[in-house]
C-alpha cells in the first residue's frame, strides 16, 4: 500500500513538473512574440504626410502607338490628316501658333505640362508616319495636352537630308490641334515635344 502511495506521489510530481515546464514555455513564447511586435503608431510617429499640391498629373502611357486597322473603332481613312510633298526647307527648332508664342515654348521646354505619351517613328515610311501621328494625336488628347515624338535627326537618310524630321515638323505646324512644338533635349534635334489644344470634354467636367 505504501509503495502504491509513493508511486502515486511520484507520478503527481512528474505531472506537476511537466505542467510547470509547459507554463514556462508558453510564457516565454508570449514574451518573445510581444517583443517582436512592432508598434506601428510609434514607428510612424515621425513621418510627415506629403502636402497635396492639387495638381493632376495623368500617368504616362508607354504603350506603342501603331496605325489601327480601318474599322468602326478606328479613325476613318478620310479623317486622317496629311501634308503633301514639297516644302523641303528645314522647319524651325520651335514653333507656336496660338499667340502665346514664347510662353508656350518656354513652358514646354521646362516641363510645365506632363508628357502623357510618346512615340518613336524610326522605321516608318512617310505615309505610315503620318498615319501614326494621326493616331498619336488622338491618343494624347484623351490623356492630356503634351506628348513627345522621336523622329530622328535624319543623318542616316539618303544625301543626309532629314526627310522624316522635316515631314513631322511640317505636319505639326499644319495640324489644327497642335499649338506648339519644341526640341526638348538640348543638343539633340531628333525629337520634339508638342502642345495640343485642351480637350473640350475636360472643360465640361
Automatic annotation (TrEMBL):
Location of region: Disordered: 11-70
Tell me which Pfam families the record gives.
Answer: Smr
Could you tell me which Gene3D superfamilies the record lists for this protein? 3.30.1370.110
Instruction: List residues of the Smr domain.
Output: 119-197
Q: Where is the signal peptide?
A: none
Domain of life of the source = Bacteria
Compositionally biased residues, Basic and acidic residues: 16-42, 58-70
Please give the name of this protein.
Answer: Smr domain-containing protein
**The species this protein was found in:** Neisseria dumasiana
Amino acid at each position: 500500500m505504501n509503495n502504491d502511495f509513493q508511486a502515486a506521489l511520484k507520478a503527481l510530481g512528474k505531472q506537476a513538473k511537466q505542467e510547470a515546464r509547459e507554463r514556462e514555455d508558453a510564457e516565454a513564447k508570449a514574451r518573445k512574440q510581444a517583443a517582436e511586435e512592432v508598434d506601428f503608431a510609434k514607428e510612424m510617429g515621425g513621418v510627415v504626410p506629403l502636402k497635396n499640391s492639387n495638381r493632376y498629373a495623368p500617368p504616362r502611357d508607354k504603350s506603342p502607338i501603331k496605325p489601327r486597322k480601318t474599322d468602326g473603332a478606328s479613325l476613318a481613312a478620310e479623317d486622317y490628316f496629311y501634308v503633301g510633298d514639297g516644302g523641303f526647307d528645314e522647319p524651325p527648332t520651335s514653333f507656336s501658333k496660338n499667340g502665346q508664342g514664347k510662353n508656350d515654348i518656354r513652358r514646354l521646354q521646362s516641363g510645365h505640362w506632363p508628357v502623357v505619351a510618346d512615340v518613336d517613328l524610326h522605321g516608318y515610311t512617310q505615309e505610315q508616319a503620318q498615319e501614326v501621328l494621326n493616331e498619336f494625336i488622338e491618343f494624347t488628347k484623351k490623356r492630356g495636352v503634351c506628348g513627345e515624338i522621336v523622329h530622328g535627326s535624319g543623318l542616316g537618310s539618303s544625301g543626309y537630308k532629314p526627310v522624316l524630321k522635316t515631314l513631322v515638323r511640317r505636319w505639326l505646324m499644319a495640324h489644327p490641334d497642335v499649338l506648339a512644338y519644341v526640341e526638348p533635349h538640348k543638343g539633340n534635334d531628333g525629337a520634339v515635344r508638342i502642345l495640343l489644344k485642351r480637350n473640350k470634354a475636360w472643360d465640361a467636367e
